[in-house]
ABC transporter ATP-binding protein (Streptomyces flavotricini), 294 residues
Amino acid sequence: MGLRRSRRRRESAQAAYEGAGRAAYDDTGRTAYDDTGRTAYEGTAAVELRGVRREYGRGAATVHALRGIDLSLPRGSFTAVMGPSGSGKSTFLQCAAGLDVPTAGSVRLGGTEITGMNENALTELRRSRLGFVFQAFNLLPSLTVEQNVLLPMRLAGGGSARQGRDRAADLLARVGLEGKGRRRPAELSGGQQQRVAIARALVTRPDVVFADEPTGALDTTTAAEVLGLLRSAVDTLGATIVMVTHDPAAAASADQVLFLADGLIADRLPRSSAATVAARMTALTAPAYAGAAA
Ligand SMILES: Nc1ncnc2c1ncn2[C@@H]1O[C@H](COP(=O)(O)OP(=O)(O)OP(=O)(O)O)[C@@H](O)[C@H]1O
Ligand SMILES: [Mg+2]
């Protein structure tokens, strides 16, 4: 009973979120207007999910990891995704980034429908049009910093050697690692390695950068610096970032925070302080526990 009530509340929050989404986007996501009728966002959405469901297993043992996600994220936006353990954050990120295939629904990235794409086409799209930043940095230890930054460009077959060197130098300067291109990752601190990973994620000017707990392995000060870099990639380079995080301080850097619960978007906040984000997380989990106990 209590559980059903809390499910209903989440579904109505999802509907309210959808309504808010429609205010900013028409059905195609191509043109959007704010309340004053001015054009708010030009071009197609960077990320668009429609009715995305992901189920694991079959029959009575089926796990509904995503129960129907509808979402449209404009280019040049920074979105944080939060939620309790098991709420579907990683599944959401994997489906949105073409690393996992939804059971139902569709995903569009930079206007391209990826649903039904074969693995080769998906790999190509991920290399050329998506960037990734992980908690564990995932740099290749045998390559120099510059070679690590340029790896996605090389894999995608883009640009001359000269263009590559210029691009790497520009990005390394932006992330505060000027002159460190010839070092190996092991010669850098954790924070510096994550800066290299951010430069690498931006090198192909991707449609979207997906970040999974990018500050999870960093101390508070270094985490704040890395978040500042992500923020400035959005503000000065027009990057689009979708970041999963458990940290309210990290989510406070984003333009909006989406809260997942039980495979649905249960709530959302516009840019807010860490204290507001933390309070909303507490509110999100508390009624479900109370409901389950009733
Ligand atoms: N490969 C899988 N097989 C079966 N169930 C899975 C699989 N991956 C995820 N799940 C289930 O799907 C649900 C959502 O998992 P997911 O990993 O997306 O949660 P999460 O929000 O990322 O959690 P955390 O904060 O702990 O990382 C959970 O109930 C999980 O047990
Ligand atoms: Mg996870």
Q: What stands out?
A: The first strand starts at residue 32 and ends at 33.
